[in-house]
Amino acid sequence: MCSLAAAELLSLRNRVPVPAVRVNEAAVATAFVSERHLRIDGRAPSSFAPLSGFWRAADGWVRTHANYPHHRARLLSALGIVDTGQDRALVGTLSKELASRPALEIQETVYAAGGLAVAVVSAPAEAGPALVERRHPAQGGPRLPASASGPAQGVRVLDLTRVIAGPVATRTLALLGADVLRVDSPRLLEDADAHADTGMGKRSTLLDLSRPGDRQAFEDLLGQADVVVTGYRPGALDRHGLAPSALLARRPDLIVAQLCAWGWSGPWAERRGFDSLVQAGVGIAAIEATADGRPGVLPAQALDHGTGYLLAAAVLRALSDRHTTGGGRHLRLSLAGTASWLLHDIHPTSVRGEAHLHDPQSWLTETESPYGLLRHALSPVHYEGVPANWNRGPTRWGTDLPNWA
Question: DSSP letters along 317-333, please?
């Protein structure tokens, strides 16, 4: 889908036939676990923290997420556990405490404290559609220049996303020629290893929107942006005047793409979430359970990666539509929507022989970066003439100036 959307936009801009599209399953399989293939000067990054994972509750199972320091602190505080700073030792304490409480009680207690824990559900749950699009009335918006070497060449993307799904989408747009600038708050740190994986081809800056100088710098960026991609909970950016309706009222030609965990309506819409938690909360963990009943996971963080490529495809299609008819677009995707699509709308097909096996080595490469020499996965997006790799590695998180290239 993403490869086709890229090829069609390139065709539209250059007024030529659509380039041939061919996606290699092995490339997709490798890219969907890009974080596992990453090596930084030969070092393999760690994935989940000791206090993240599945735990027995008094009446079932829960999944916790404590990779970020603030989520870890809130989890322990909510459960009345003294933080000794020794996670390995705290594993036993946490396990004992969780085993004494019902799963739903744990979920709601931790959520009330701003932490992350989800009760594992036993049956698949339905969510909304994977993608919702709203078209803003056409205002004769800007047409992209013709004779482009890449589908997104000349497109300016403000990247307000974190972790995996959103950064995968904007990483893909960077591969296709977009000028992508990631903007983070200096008060909300990002994992350096995660950024080394998802920051390919992009730049990264820090702005505190509560400070007048930083706010003005952001407004200057916004005034020249073509696309704004956000990955925060619904309503989290509204206090900064960044609700989609407010953005489109000021810039009717803007493409606003939003990503969240649990969907855009219902009691869970405003909750924090990650791929692993959504898998637990929609029934995937129960489906993937082992013979002894322990919840399991998909072989990849497929909700994150899948939603990332769907988001990139949606932005590319919106750029094509705007180029043709004008007007902005408002796009909404969620991890839960992608999960529902996987659970209810995709029919499995049989695998012949060893077609499911692949050698990832053909889809890995090395790129120099400020973090060191990166061995990383190549993008699975492919059409005739697509760039084989990003034009540069990631810059260090938060070190670039708030300017367009």
Answer: HHHHHHHHH---EEEEE
